From TrEMBL:
<feature type="transmembrane region" description="Helical">
    <location>
        <begin position="224"/>
        <end position="244"/>
    </location>
</feature>
<comment type="similarity">
    <text>Belongs to the two pore domain potassium channel (TC 1.A.1.8) family.</text>
</comment>
<dbReference type="GO" id="GO:0005886">
    <property type="term" value="C:plasma membrane"/>
</dbReference>
<feature type="transmembrane region" description="Helical">
    <location>
        <begin position="194"/>
        <end position="212"/>
    </location>
</feature>
<dbReference type="Pfam" id="PF07885">
    <property type="entry name" value="Ion_trans_2"/>
</dbReference>
<protein>
    <submittedName>
        <fullName>Potassium channel domain-containing protein</fullName>
    </submittedName>
</protein>
<feature type="transmembrane region" description="Helical">
    <location>
        <begin position="6"/>
        <end position="27"/>
    </location>
</feature>
<feature type="transmembrane region" description="Helical">
    <location>
        <begin position="161"/>
        <end position="182"/>
    </location>
</feature>
<keyword id="KW-0472">Membrane</keyword>
<keyword id="KW-0813">Transport</keyword>
<keyword id="KW-0406">Ion transport</keyword>
<dbReference type="InterPro" id="IPR013099">
    <property type="entry name" value="K_chnl_dom"/>
</dbReference>
<keyword id="KW-1133">Transmembrane helix</keyword>
<feature type="domain" description="Potassium channel">
    <location>
        <begin position="85"/>
        <end position="139"/>
    </location>
</feature>
<feature type="domain" description="Potassium channel">
    <location>
        <begin position="174"/>
        <end position="249"/>
    </location>
</feature>
<dbReference type="GO" id="GO:0015271">
    <property type="term" value="F:outward rectifier potassium channel activity"/>
</dbReference>
<dbReference type="GO" id="GO:0022841">
    <property type="term" value="F:potassium ion leak channel activity"/>
</dbReference>
Amino acid sequence: MSSWSHASNFALLIFYLFLGGFIFKALEWQHEVDMRQMLVDTYNNLTITASQDGCIDLKDVKNLVTLTLTAQRYGIREWGDFTMKSQWNYFGSLFFSLVVVSTVGYGNMSPSTIWGRRMCVVYAFFGIPIFLNAVAQFSAEAKQAITRLQDKLARKKPHRRALAAAIMFTLGTFVAFFPNFLFMYCENWSFEEAAYFTFITLTTVGFGDYVAGAQTFYFSTYRFFLILWMLLGLMYVALIIMYVQSIMQYVLRKIASERSTTKVMQVKS
């Protein structure tokens, strides 16, 4: 397949992600604003009642707890900060789009409107194949580039393997190691927590117990970095899987060849 075809598939993925950002912002932003206003009103009524009467009605407390839990389920997690930015701003919606098509599925954000849920199903149905196709083709192109580099710099098999290992290690350092220090700084995580988040994300396990950029005060540049990092990281993991498959196929062919050779020798004897 031509390099133009590879580029067009990747461009389609990028376009689809940006389109998802616009769609989910349009469908979910206003509902989140309404939920936040309801939370603010309930909180204010509770504090006014407490200051005037010196006591709090149990029903109001239950309503506040229920509303808070509901708001958290919708991605509003900063209790007491009513000036927080929307989770469903454009970059938040763009990040959600990538989480959907990559099947990471953290679960910290989910559509709460009927049309948001419907669109999420349709978006995932078409988006997952687009994502997988783009990642597979990008990884295949990267593998071919590494092979061409091996042909230029290393002729013998041990040298070729060492060069491939060095390239993969270098890529892994930039994709899976260095970003941990940024997560430690921005998220106030330990290195172990940051590495755990990296592994859970890039393997698409996506528990959602640790999610970078979940706090709404984060600047858009950081969230854009997360989107770019996830794209490159998932493609790197796909490249590793491709190499592992090649190694397994080589080992299986070698075993099959040795078995056939053994059978031939047994027949001759």
